[in-house]
Design brief:
The complex is a heterotrimer of chains A (225), B (256) and C (636). By secondary structure, chain B is α+β, with helices and mostly antiparallel strands. Chain B has 8 helices and 7 strands, in the order E-E-H-E-E-E-E-E-H-H-H-H-H-H-H. The chains are: A mainly alpha (225), B alpha+beta (256), C alpha+beta (636).
């Protein structure tokens, strides 16, 4: 196993780790978004969806554990890379010419990732924590998850934060998606432009998809009718 | 034949030696638009020397964009604002009258400054010495036409082999990563039949030394490709990633 | 006086090398590591020699003033490398390559050396392919060839327009492999400033560490110089900024003979000067002349734009003077013709440039075909000049490019100083008075890969040279002389800069010892060079110190050798009362302006012995042509 850890600790290995965990998170987001769409179909649909997850809880817990590992590795490794890479430059340039040679998404992965991380903590605190651990509303009995979610979506600052975070998540994904392919070595002159387009499309769908919910509930749902 | 001269303000990095603290010095110059950037520096040096002052040290040799000796960061871009040229091929007609230009050395922990704009890029050679070759001795090689090589493969290998080892990829990368340089050499041999016997051991050895030298890792910004004077493609990096992973899986030796 | 013994083996020309290889003494494999060899220079010849000697098991110390072995100027060679593979089935053979090279050299090369070069040419290609050099290939996957000036067969192997780069990177990869193995130790940023000769044999070198300014001494059983040519004596040439003659010149001053210094090649298709700030000249591949037509205006000082000059007012002078070869006339002929029309005042807008026009070819073949053939060259042209050669004709002018002369060596590539070997452009051996296109790369690699590994063993096993340690008084003496020279240079503190004086030297050389020379001009040149040299030693300014990086000091050190070498070039040109190859004396020409060679009186190699300041003794090595009979070159 020593060789494998060594591989993971090499420059390419670290990138490999980012790509593997990132890919897992990319898939997770799709599932998450699909699930959340049930919000648009009203309280019963959404509550039923959450309840379904509750029924297969053991399985979900396993997935959550993998997810947690992926998140931790992705975040920890990303932080490590960022520090090492800063150090590799040493003295910085007086004039930064990078806008001329690379796109903003690729250069801001640490920044967008960090903001998304902060949001993630808040997000888990608001929903995951309430749904699973701390249950003042007695959700375990009422199963009124829908009301909790839409309740938060009435708080203007929460909505703004949510939208900003998912937009930055989109930026992060726009680079991350194609970057994973490149890291795995799947860069073919013929197909890679398509991969990049799919990545951008994916990022847009994720960002708009997640953003659509707070927007809808804040502007058009109009409180707790 | 001489066109109207340009008035320029240059801020050039001056640093006495590796250990000393550097700073920018300002120079006002008048230069012909037909002169190259380095010829302008030659002129400044000529003026400095005539006054008994030390010349601005920078490296250059062939001045045709092939030897890879020159390399300055001009207004934040390695080899200046034009794509696919080395610093020596940059001509002053690409600048506007009255412009202010900032000239810095390549910056990377693995490329320490020696003096003024000169940097030490010997790390590149250390990587190549670790495995950037095909192990054949002189003599006893088979006829050149013994192994046919498809034209497109030979052409791809040539694309990768065109690297001039200037280090602009490292200078441009926000992580000071040497992946483009290393992958170009790895790819050249990975593509050709002659490179196959050592294909997987080579990539392991070269990446190992690259990591030891303190270059950053690749975060796929592709700034290297954009600034490369020879337009070396980042598909080479993908190929190296692939070969490196394969090497880790396939190679029987645990330690490399 | 040392007798000039070229040591050409006996026997039929096609068997000389084979027999010689058998007759040479060998060093036992176990003993090879006991021998130290210094190789100076890491170009094609130096890198291939150091790598091959390292592979054999010798202890090799390889030196370069560059920051990396890969920077050597061999890297800039564009066109290709000749080899008599006859892959094209067009009648090529070792003998034909030999014949073409001797003829192309205007019968001033040594037959035996040239034949050996032709023999090993095919091995070079095999070697490079095995190293992973990505030569151009045809659709079937086999190696592609193109034809080059001066040959009627297609024998030139190439890797796009970067053949020199690819071959050098191949040789340097072999060198790097030996560095990794520990058989070669690479000394970077070291400039050789002198050679140490003890009891008549070369025993080591003295170098300046360009980073620290330290003067370092290195000893070895034998010293190999592969330090390239001296075109930079002209200041403006196609050579790289740092190419210099210092290594061979300092060796010359320690006793090595300098052969045929006046044989210099001027390349016809270079980009013209843009002004005083010009630092070097850029070569455009000669292949452009396949489709471009060379012309100037019929009027003197015609200031019109080229596209405004009507057809009947243009003088396509190459086509007019040389109807059968036209725009493809050999390098020396085209170069001289360009200088003539410019001296008449008919150059581009009265200046020093002629047009190379592609409009006919574009009309005939279409822009697409021209783009395919020359696209990257046109791009280079546009990058440098800012003009689009598809729309208005290119401007070109000749420039110094290659020097056939160099240190005298025998058949074993050893100079008259035992233990001092000279390879590649630094020696004089294979190209006679003129080098054919795509032959420089061939010679560099032939010397390094396939000649020196044999002849070095023969010297070491035969002469049994002893190793002298660097604490020997002679090493200290030489090192002190080098230090004194550096101190002297730094102490002058005059008014004129090194480049300023070098530019003046360049102008003298170009106008009077350039592509057309005459007795009066040469004598003037000698006087002017001496005057300039005196001025240099009184009035040059070299700021900075000798204790760290000082590029001005480096250039000054090289310039002091150019004064002396420039003078010797003029002396040699003056002595050679004939025109041949790259040496054209205006007094010796036929009525139509063709070079008039004098085989009866000048069929020899001029090997000059340094005999104190401004003094040289001439030694002659007679050339015998048994297999290729001298004939008048005619390209009409």
């Amino acid at each position: 196993m020593g060789w494998f850890l060594k591989f993971l600790n090499s420059s390419i290995g670290k990138k490999f780790m980012m790509a593997v965990t990132g890919s897992f998170l990319i898939i997770f987001l799709v599932v998450h978004l699909i699930g959340n769409i049930t919000l648009f179909f009203g309280a019963s649909a959404f509550n039923a969806y959450v309840l379904t997850l509750d029924v297969i809880k053991p399985l979900i817990r396993v997935i959550e554990l993998v997810l947690l590992t992926a998140f931790i590795l992705h975040i920890f490794n990303g932080l490590k890379l960022w520090i090492e890479n800063k150090r590799a430059r040493g003295v910085t340039y007086k004039i930064n010419g990078s806008p001329e040679n690379s796109d903003v998404f690729s250069r801001t992965m640490f920044l967008t990732g960090s903001i998304v991380f902060i949001f993630l903590v808040l997000h888990l605190a608001t929903f995951f924590w309430r749904f699973n651990v701390h249950d003042p509303e007695g959700l375990a009995n009422t199963h009124q998850y829908f009301d909790i979610v839409t309740g938060f979506f009435q708080i203007w600052w929460y909505v703004i934060l949510y939208i900003v975070a998912v937009l930055l998540l989109g930026f992060h994904l726009n680079h991350g998606f194609q970057s994973a392919f490149q890291t795995f070595g799947w860069n073919h002159k013929k197909y890679f432009p398509l991969v990049q387009k799919i990545g951008t499309l994916y990022a847009i769908i994720m960002a708009l998809g997640f953003a659509s919910m707070p927007i809808y509930f804040f502007f058009f749902y109009g409180g707790n009718q | 034949m001489e066109a109207k001269k340009l008035n320029l303000t240059l801020n050039i990095w001056r640093q006495k030696s590796a250990g000393s603290v550097g700073s920018f010095a300002e120079y006002k110059v008048q230069v012909s638009p037909d002169a190259s950037f380095l010829e302008m520096l030659d002129e400044i040096n000529n003026t400095l020397e005539a006054k008994g002052e030390e010349a601005i040290h920078f490296e250059s040799d062939c001045r045709e964009g092939i030897c890879g000796t020159c390399g300055l960061v001009i207004n934040g871009q390695p080899h200046g604002p034009l794509p696919k040229i080395a610093t020596c091929q940059l001509h002053m007609r690409n600048f506007k009258d009255g412009e202010t230009i900032w000239v810095e050395p390549f910056r990377a922990k693995a490329f320490p400054v020696i003096k003024d704009l000169m940097v030490d890029r010997s790390g590149f050679d250390k990587i190549l010495q670790a495995g950037g070759y095909v192990s054949v001795n002189t003599g006893g090689t088979p006829d050149g036409n013994m192994i046919p090589i498809p034209k497109d493969i030979a052409s791809l290998a040539m694309d990768a082999a065109a690297c001039i080892g200037c280090g602009a990829c490292v200078a441009a990368c926000k992580n000071a990563s040497a992946m483009l340089f290393v992958s170009a050499k790895v790819s050249q041999y990975a593509l050709l039949p002659q490179g196959q016997p050592e294909r997987y051991i080579r990539v392991e050895k070269m990446v190992k030394v690259m990591d030891e030298l303190g270059f950053g890792s690749c975060t796929n910004t592709y700034a290297c490709e954009a600034e490369c004077p020879k337009g070396i493609s980042v598909t080479n990096i993908a190929r190296m990633n692939r070969d490196f992973m394969m090497a880790k899986i396939k190679n029987k030796e645990v330690e490399v | 006086m040392t007798k000039l013994d070229s040591k050409i083996p006996a026997g039929n020309i096609s068997e000389k090398w084979t027999n010689h290889k058998f007759n040479m003494k060998l060093v036992n494999p176990a003993n090879k590591r006991k021998f130290d060899i210094i190789v100076v220079g890491t170009g094609l010849a130096g890198a291939s020699a150091a790598a091959s000697l390292g592979e054999l098991g010798y202890n090799v110390k390889s030196f370069t003033f560059h920051d990396s072995a890969r920077r050597a100027h061999s890297i800039a060679a564009q066109g290709g490398i000749n080899a008599s593979k006859n892959y094209q089935n067009d009648g090529d053979s070792t003998f034909r390559l030999f014949y073409d090279t001797v003829k192309g050299g205007d019968f001033r090369a040594r037959e035996a050396n040239v034949h050996r070069l032709a023999e090993v040419s095919t091995n070079i290609i095999d070697q490079c392919v095995a190293q992973g050099v990505p030569f151009a290939r045809d659709y079937g996957g086999l190696l592609d060839n193109r034809s080059f000036g001066g040959a009627q067969v297609s024998r030139t192997f190439y890797a796009r327009g970067q053949t020199g780069q690819q071959l050098l990177l191949g040789a340097v990869s072999a060198l790097n492999r030996q560095v990794d193995k520990g058989s070669v130790k690479l000394y970077l940023r070291r400039e050789m400033l002198d050679i140490v000769v003890i009891d008549g044999a070369a025993k080591g070198i003295v170098v300046r560490n360009l980073l620290t300014g330290e003067i370092e001494k290195y000893s070895a059983h034998a010293v190999v110089l592969a330090t390239g040519g001296y075109s930079n004596v002209f200041f403006l040439s196609t050579n790289a900024m740092n190419c210099n003659a210092t290594a061979i010149w300092r060796a010359h001053k320690r006793g090595a003979y300098f052969a045929n210094p006046c044989f210099t090649q001027i390349h016809p298709t270079c980009l013209p000067l843009h002004g005083d700030a010009q630092s070097k000249l850029t070569l455009m591949s000669e292949s452009l002349r396949n489709d471009g037509r060379v012309w100037v205006s019929k009027k003197k000082g015609d200031m019109r734009n080229p596209t405004d000059i009507p057809e009947d007012e243009r003088d396509y002078y190459l086509e007019r003077k040389y109807p059968s070869f036209g725009n493809l006339a050999p390098r020396d002929i085209s170069s001289r013709a360009a200088k003539e029309v410019c001296d008449e005042g008919r150059g581009v807008k009265g200046g020093d440039a002629v047009y190379l026009d592609f409009s006919d070819a574009i009309n005939r073949l279409g822009q697409k075909v021209i783009e395919e053939r020359y696209g990257n060259l046109f791009e280079i042209y546009e990058t440098i000049t800012g003009e689009n050669p598809y729309k208005s004709p290119m401007m070109i002018y000749p420039a110094p490019h290659y020097t056939m002369g160099g240190l005298w060596v025998d058949y074993n590539l050893m100079s008259n100083v035992p233990g001092l070997f000279v390879l590649g452009e630094a020696n004089f051996s294979d190209h006679g008075a003129n080098r054919l296109g795509a032959s420089a790369l061939m010679q560099g690699l032939a010397d390094g890969y396939f000649v020196i590994p044999y002849t070095m063993g023969n010297y070491l096993a035969g002469d049994k040279p002893a190793l002298v340690k660097t604490d020997h008084p002679e090493f200290d003496k030489v090192a002190n002389e080098v230090k004194d020279l550096t101190d002297k240079l730094l102490s002058i503190k005059g008014k004129r800069t090194v480049d300023d004086i070098h530019k003046e030297l360049g102008r003298i050389m170009w106008h009077k010892v350039g592509m057309a020379r005459n007795e009066k001009g040469l004598k003037e040149a000698i006087e002017e060079i001496r005057r300039l040299k005196t001025e240099f030693w009184k009035n040059v300014t070299i700021p900075g110190s000798g204790d760290d990086v000082n590029q001005t000091l480096e250039r000054a050190g090289r310039l002091i050798d150019y004064f002396e070498l420039g003078e010797l070039m003029a002396v040699d040109a003056l002595e050679r009362n004939e025109s041949c190859g790259g040496h054209f004396r205006t007094e010796y020409q036929f009525e139509d302006g063709e070079a008039k060679r004098d085989d009866a009186n000048y069929s020899y190699v001029s090997a000059w012995e340094f005999a104190g300041e401004n003094k040289w003794n001439l030694h002659k090595e007679d050339l015998n042509f048994e297999y290729v009979k001298p004939a008048i070159r005619s390209y009409k």
